[in-house]
Amino acid sequence: MPWKRCLYLQQKYPINYIEIRHAYRKRSVNEIHEDINRMIIRISIVMLTLSLLKVMVLEDELGMPKSSWFSFISTLTENFLENKENIGINLKPGFMLLTFAYLLSPLIRTLTLEIHPTTLYAYFAVTQILFVVDSVSASIYNTGSSAEVKDEWTPLSLEESINIPKKISSNQILGLTSYFLGFILLSSRFSKPSSVFNFLCLTFMGYIILLNHAERLGIHKSTNAMVLVYVSVSIIIFLPDIKIFCIYSCMVTFVYSVSHMSVWLLERDLNGRPSHPSKYQ
């Protein structure tokens, strides 16, 4: 009798059941490319915020009143929290961090005045590249335990027969921490508290709310939409500073080159992997 028939004493298969020999095929190549596009959208939002910083530092205007920001963000937060099950994110920690950073902005400004902005940009670039590479690699190799392939007539234990995807919560913490810490430090470049508050609000909405809306609209699933995003972001960031545009182009080229090469190696490995035909047809 094949082991399939005696698995769990003839109980029904669980929803996330997968054969060990198919563990490396759980995530399709299309899903991997979608994760790569998510990273590109994330980088685009980061570069847009850097361009915003450049413009705000030059003008240093008062901008939107604080009362308007609180009303706007509270409305969005309430809407997101009501649909938390469909969205999958929690805005409370981010909003608390934003408020806490604003209250400590005078202290942060005093501690970071001697740090050159180039140092902050370099920190941003390194942490975001590491975050993107780690996220893409976690997506490509998002398989369960690396158990050896067994013949199909050998019973498997419960742990071996269910493929549990790897968790990337630590990676998400790295990305959010590097983002918020970087922009909290960059906010110290402003001399007016209102500019600090406006900048933190815009970065908060851009990195969390705008990023989530882009994913809900399915932009990462369309090649044409990604091209439109790249062209639009390139035009916007080219106007304030050509250096930011060059960095953005280099990062997009780097991510697509490394990720597509990794996907190609993965496909070649899967296609070259010997199959194990079932003894019982």
UniProtKB/TrEMBL annotation:
Subcellular locations according to the entry: Membrane
GO CC annotations, alphabetized: membrane
Entry membrane topology: Multi-pass membrane protein
InterPro entries, per database record: Plno_GlcNAc_GPI2
Biochemical pathway: Glycolipid biosynthesis; glycosylphosphatidylinositol-anchor biosynthesis
Keyword Iron found: no
Keywords: GPI-anchor biosynthesis, Membrane, Transmembrane, Transmembrane helix
Entry's transmembrane regions: 39-58, 89-108, 120-141, 173-190, 196-214, 226-256
GO biological process, one term: GPI anchor biosynthetic process
Family according to the record: Belongs to the PIGC family.
UniProt-recorded name of the protein: Uncharacterized protein
